[in-house]
Amino acid sequence: MDIEQRQSELIDHFVKRASAVSDAAALASVLVEATSHPSLFAFSEILALPNVLQLEATENSAFLDMLRLFAHGTWGDYKSNADRLPQLIPDQILKLKQLTVLTLAETHKELDVTNVRELEDFLINECMYAVGIIPYQRGIVRGKLDQLRRCFEVQFAAGRDLRPDQLGNMIQTLSNW
What residues does the PCI domain cover (predicted)? Predict the structure, then answer.
């Protein structure tokens, strides 16, 4: 099973679960579970559900903002807005840092790593070779660490959700292609 098929199955699972919930607190719980799931890296379909969007301007709106963060944001975005978002559990912190890697964060400071060795360990252990993220396939990124040039050459990265402002650029790129 490839990454796209696994993602599709997980998205369908969480869309069905979230759609079936009418209570805002129960919906918030499903959103926390989805953003914590070790193999789910796309959230736009969940974010588009009418009952999820109805969380806007309610006492549970922070969970909608949290889902938007996982769909489009980075660890730095969370740190900048932590006072208005739910506190993340360790699995969510790991996931958001992995998603930040997928956006090809420019500096290791965005991931809150203190040195190059810590960044290498995170890339290797939590992104490249993490067992169980995707069955029969290792990791969310593949590439080579070049210690001499102090860079990571990306050969493959799992996709992220498009931010609404990226859609026009994506359409233009596909048209040009």
Answer: 87-177
